[in-house]
Amino acid sequence: MTGEIFKLFHMVKDIEVAGAGVGLAIVKKVVADHDARITVSSQRDVGSTFTVSFKKRP
Fold first, then answer.
1. In this structure, is residue 58 part of a structural domain?
2. Which of 16, 31, 34, 50 is deepest in the core (most CB within 10 A)?
C-alpha cells in the first residue's frame, strides 16, 4: 500500500480529507529529481510521518 500513496491522483478512500491527490506525487518527483530519498511510517488512527533526505552538496 505504501507505494500507492505516491501515485498521481491517488486518494485514500477511508478518510474524509479535501484534496486533489497530487501532493505526494509532486514530492516524489522533487525527491527523484534531486537524487534524494523519502520514507514513510504510518500507524492507523494515529497518523503518518514522512521523512525526506537530501544529500549534502560539496
1. no
2. 31
